[in-house]
Amino acid sequence: MLKSSVSKVRGEDMTEEPVRWLDDDERRAWVNLIKVLLTLPGALESQLLRDADLTLLGYMILARLSVVPEATLRMSEIAEMANGSLPRISHAVTRLEDRGWVKRTVCGGVGVGRRFTVATLTDSGRARLEAAAPQHVAAVRRLVLEPLGEDFVPFGIAAERIVKVLGLPTDVLPPAGS
Q: What pLDDT does 100 receive?
């Protein structure tokens, strides 16, 4: 049985309050949102793997690199963008590097300060991204924009509020070439 109140969340003392259970409409909306959160990434990744031999994370890394100055980011910045750990991002970047789509460079060191690694998009990586983008955007349109129609932009604005509560950056970089 579920308790009616919570005393601690992430180590913070919380005031004992009765739980505000979801009503029928809220529960239906929540369950549908969970279905989207659990299945949409897999559907997008399946399309990318089939059509471009890219994971969704790999695509997002290439896309992010394509729109930043010098097509280069620190590995820690990529991890923040992808909300992933450095080992997970390092593994993903290794796969991209093995294919020649990204180049890693160690920077810093003696007399310069702390060492860090950057990833740079290669010409081959940019070509792969440009080849993959049209089919990926078509999948995004088919799976998300078309079903939502005119609700898409308000949905995105509402989702941004959740992104902020989660403590994630809300900045969106312009498309490559703009």
A: 97
Rounded (10°) angle between helices 86-98 and 56-66: 80
- pLDDT class of 1 with cuts at 50, 70, 90: very low
Q: State the CB neighbour count (10 A cutoff) for residue 114.
A: 7
Nearest CA among 56, 63, 112 for reference residue 88: 56
Contacts of residue 152, defined as CB under 8 A and 6 or more positions apart, other chains included, come to 144, 145
Tokens of 177: 């070439």
- Give, in degrees to the nearest 5, the angle at Cα 27 between 148 and 35: 50
10 Å CB burial of residue 128 (0-12, 13-18, 19+) is buried
The DSSP letter of residue 74 is: E
Output the pLDDT for position 28.
97
Helix, strand or coil, per DSSP, at residue 21: coil
CB contact at 8 A, 81 and 101: no
Calpha distance 112→79 (Å, rounded): 23
* Residue 104 contacts residue 78 (beta carbons within 8 Å): no
Torsion of CA 91, 93, 97, 103, to 10 degrees: -140
User: On the CB side of 169, how many CA atoms lie within 13 Å of its CA?
Assistant: 10
pLDDT digit string, tens, across residues 66-76: 999 999 999 98
3-class DSSP assignment, residue 170: coil
